[in-house]
Design a protein that fits this description.
Blueprint lengths: L13 E5 L2 H4 L31 H15 L3 E5 L2 H4 L9 H16 L3 E7 L5 H5 L7 H17 L5 E6 L1 H11 L7 H25 L4 E5 L5 E3 L4 H24 L4 H10 L9 H7 L5 E4 L4 E4 L25 E2 L6 E2 L5 E2 L1 H15 L3 E5 L17 H20 L3 E4 L21 E3 L11 E3 L1 H11 L8
Parallel strand pairs: 1-2, 1-13, 2-3, 3-4, 4-5, 6-8, 7-12, 12-13
Antiparallel strand pairs: 8-9, 10-11, 14-15
The chain binds 6-O-phosphono-beta-D-galactopyranose.
């Protein structure tokens, strides 16, 4: 709908930026950190690993100073579970606690609000070895880990995210590299265990940090039917339920989405639900919903020809499910250098869809453009394509606010260049350039890109500069 008068961004809007521990910190075995499922992934021939990444573990003070130069109001980052519990459970590694207390103290120096993700893909390997999320013991390990952080960091952290993109770990875990090869049946049992773990953490959170806020952080994309054919509309409804609403209905409504559950039963994927699980889940309601958005998705009806699951998807490229839906390219959308569709309007419809369904405050915790950025001879990085990307997405976020959506923050991916889940260092997302290549570490210099100056003005004017 067209608005004659746009609502302003809320007064204390959390203009931020995002990262994850494993994609930025490096120092993969420093100060007592244990191995994670990421560290033991088979090396890929043409792209770097995570042993050095962006060096954020050692350079965090310089990085935060640059974030402060940009005027960031918030910084969304994750804690490496294996720095706190090197074996996932058991002895706490005090050096790990100290590190994140220092990071948060540095943020507080500049009045940057820390937004802490408990778990962002990097499960401690020792837990994987004892069954990972197949094993219900991991639920208790997660609860112990979360409670330890609530006590250690709770004085300074107001906003907490439980699990990053649980839906992508379940639907694209092999591509993203977040765990061992699992059958679909195993994946949806793992998913159920993660839901119980999240609920137990939220219940303890209420006891320990009654004044702080906590929520899930799935990857959510509104799903379009490829045509107005009724079968395509049904396919979109199926994929919306399976990809999106299953993962938010459980924490927000305390139940499995009926279409998603019908899919699990039809395929024989339905998880075993232990006595008391759903009662626990029903007690643990989130305060807000954080979500990551990169693009809308388009699907058509399954052709029932055994080809629906063909091709390699990832978190932004849909594969299909036999008899349920099939991914389809959206011819109306441009693509990034890495083949992801770009749909700013889709952000508005996704914001409206989530808010309409759950009516909770929302924060965008990831949205960004992976591109081949270039460090020029004069030491600048000119990324007008990233400015255009965010200009269009911020405009749509403001339209959603004018539609009535309660959006309280926006943390683009990413604060600094980092290592992609599966496409290396070359796929740059940062407002701050890291001067290293896939295998040549160069000098790791941190350099603000032109987009960071543009974003600085957006933040300074609380979004007013978008209208110039
Ligand atoms: C999201 C993850 C982030 C980040 C982002 C970009 O799914 O939560 O960790 O990786 O995708 O994706 P990629 O790194 O695959 O380019």
């Amino acid at each position: 709908m067209k608005h004659e008068k746009l609502a302003p961004f809320p007064k204390d809007f959390l203009w931020g930026a995002s990262t994850s521990a494993y994609q930025t910190e490096g120092a993969w075995n420093k100060d007592g950190k244990g191995p994670t499922v990421i560290d033991v992934r088979p090396k890929k021939e043409h792209i770097t690993d995570y042993t050095v990444a962006s060096g954020h573990y050692d350079y965090y003070k310089e990085d935060i100073a640059k974030m402060a130069e940009m005027g960031l109001k918030a910084y969304r980052f994750s804690i490496s579970w294996a720095r706190i519990f090197p074996k996932g459970v058991g002895e706490v590694n005090q050096a790990g606690i100290d590190h994140y207390q220092n990071v948060i103290a540095e943020l507080k120096k500049y009045n940057i609000e820390p937004i802490v993700t408990l778990y962002h893909f990097d499960l401690p390997y020792d837990l994987e070895e004892t069954g990972g999320w197949d094993n219900r013991d991991t639920i208790d390990a997660f609860e112990q880990y979360a409670v330890t952080l609530f006590h250690a960091l709770g004085d300074s952290v107001k906003y907490w995210l439980t699990i990053n993109e649980q839906n992508m770990m379940i639907m694209h875990g092999n591509t993203i590299g977040t765990g061992k090869q699992s059958t679909e049946k195993e994946l949806y049992q793992q998913n159920h265990h993660m839901m119980v773990a999240q609920a137990k953490a939220i219940i303890r959170f209420r006891e320990i940090l009654p004044d702080a806020k906590i929520g899930p952080a799935p990857n959510i994309s509104n799903v379009y039917p490829a045509s107005s054919k009724p079968a395509d509309v049904l396919a979109a409804q199926n994929y919306n339920a399976i990809r999106n609403w299953m993962y938010l209905d459980i924490p927000c409504f305390g139940r499995y989405n009926h279409i998603a559950w019908a899919f699990l039963k039809e395929k024989g994927y339905e998880p075993e639900i232990a006595k008391g699980d759903m009662e626990l889940i029903a007690q643990a309601k989130p305060d807000f919903i954080a979500f990551n958005y990169y693009s809308s998705k388009t699907v058509e009806a399954s052709k029932n020809d055994g080809q629906d699951r063909s091709g390699n998807g990832d978190q932004e490229i849909v594969i299909g499910e036999e008899g349920v839906y099939r991914g389809k390219k959206n011819e109306h959308l441009e693509k990034t250098d890495f083949g992801w569709e770009i749909d700013p309007t889709g952000l508005r419809s996704t914001l409206n869809a989530i808010y309409d369904r759950y009516h909770l405050p929302l924060i965008i915790t990831e949205n960004g453009l992976g591109a081949y950025d270039k460090l020029e001879e004069d030491g600048t990085i000119d990324d007008p394509y990233r400015i255009e990307y965010f200009q269009k997405h911020f405009e749509q976020a403001q339209l959603a606010i004018t539609d009535g959506v309660e959006l309280f923050g926006y943390c683009p991916w990413s604060a600094i260049d980092l290592v992609s889940t599966h496409q290396g260092m070359q796929k740059r997302y940062g407002f701050i350039y890291i001067n290293r290549e896939e295998f040549d570490l160069k000098d790791m210099r941190r350099i603000r890109k032109n987009s960071s100056y543009w974003y600085e003005e957006v933040i300074r004017t609380n979004g007013e500069s978008l209208r110039k």
